[in-house]
Amino acid sequence: MTTSSRLNIGAVRYSFAPWEDPAARPLIRFDGVVKRFGDDVAVNGISLDIYEKEFFALLGPSGCGKTTLMRMLAGFETPDAGTITLEGEDILDKPAHRRPVNMMFQSYALFPHLNVEQNIAFGLKHLPGEERKDRVLDMLALVRLEGLARRKPDQLSGGQRQRVALARAIAPRPRLLLLDEPLAALDKKLRDETQFELVALQERLGMTFMVVTHDQEEAMVMSTRVAVMDKGQIVQVGRPAEVYETPNSRYVADFIGEVNLFEARVTQAGSGTLKLTGGNCPAGYEVREDTPIPPGTAVWLAVRPEKIQVTQDRPPAGANGMAGKVADIGYLGDWTTYLVTVPGGMTVRAARANAARIVERPIDWDDEVWLTFSPDAAVVLTS
Ligand SMILES: Nc1ncnc2c1ncn2[C@@H]1O[C@H](COP(=O)(O)OP(=O)(O)OP(=O)(O)O)[C@@H](O)[C@H]1O
Ligand SMILES: [Mg+2]
After folding, report:
1. Looking at ligand 1, which residue's alpha carbon is closest to its atom 22?
2. In terms of residue numbers, what domain contains 205?
3. Does residue 243 sit in the same domain as residue 347?
4. Mutate to test the pocket of ligand 1, among 30, 33, 37 (most ligand atoms within 8 A of CB)
5. How far apart are CA 313 and CA 82, in angstroms?
6. Can you tell me whether residue 22 is helix, strand or coil?
7. Can you tell me which atom of ligand 1 is nearest the CA of 70?
8. Total count of domains within the chain
9. Can you give the pTM of this predicted structure?
């Protein structure tokens, strides 16, 4: 099955939300966890609950502490402060092999002298022979390596090796599986397919997954919740759609997906609507916003490219509209991206779904166009 991940943002198990149930107990609780390496604070006071059967994604730039957080959970690092509990029980005194946690490392290491099926069977010594065989066959099918069971790691491509490592990590069915960039070496098509299969597998086995990824689309497609990290801290946690549609800062808005940030100042607030002025829209903006923000406050309007319309017709008075000139057009097949320069020099990104087949380009380079967005398309950010 190949489906564009754009179709699935936030669609994964929408009714599953133990974190909204005050009676639900987390499987894992990080409480005030700190980890330093010399003067470097890799993890800077993280408190986080993860629930049974979650598919929890950690997102953040390189060096923000994702792997370190996972390594502390798996038992390969010890926090300098804070606690980590599993079902309320402190696990920090337990060595790695006594925690019901398995981790697939970012630099997955296969045993070079063992073939694919032996690598996968490595953690299954406790199972009776037949069951172990079946389990290995299951795993080979999952990662589509049925034909390569007898190969050694050095006879595999990087993507194939990564799939063996994934199969080996899942095979013992740990209660909690930590996956550090599990799909990074796969090509786009295989990655898309494996994402859905991982979710199906995780649901079938009732395991809890925590995954690190650089690919925000991957996090969106697979996870029940996403945590966005910055410099050792978690800056926002929520369902993929929550984090995408209501980011709490410019950092998050910019990290998850593409965003246009317009500088503006509140002129009038009340009854769910803000009026603002801003250089890009001389007539002023109107935005739906429930949190009252006092007039005079400097803010940013965050507007996603797909929420900005590009038209040749002048919008009606009072609309959030700005004139501009098309500087660049990127045709992506399913989408077309327009880069439009507006007065003041800012380049605004607008994206349009190519719902109909495009025979003639409706809007061309250097065209004078109008950009508009509806009052509920913008998120008002103060930081
Ligand atoms: N064993 C170590 N000794 C010293 N510093 C370390 C060690 N492990 C991690 N660090 C530092 O801690 C910080 C966080 O590292 P970490 O590996 O957790 O980042 P990450 O978010 O996983 O990044 P990436 O996306 O690049 O894998 C970095 O500044 C890193 O250099
Ligand atoms: Mg890492």
Report:
1. 67
2. 5-100+174-252
3. no
4. 37
5. 58
6. coil
7. 18
8. 2
9. 0.88
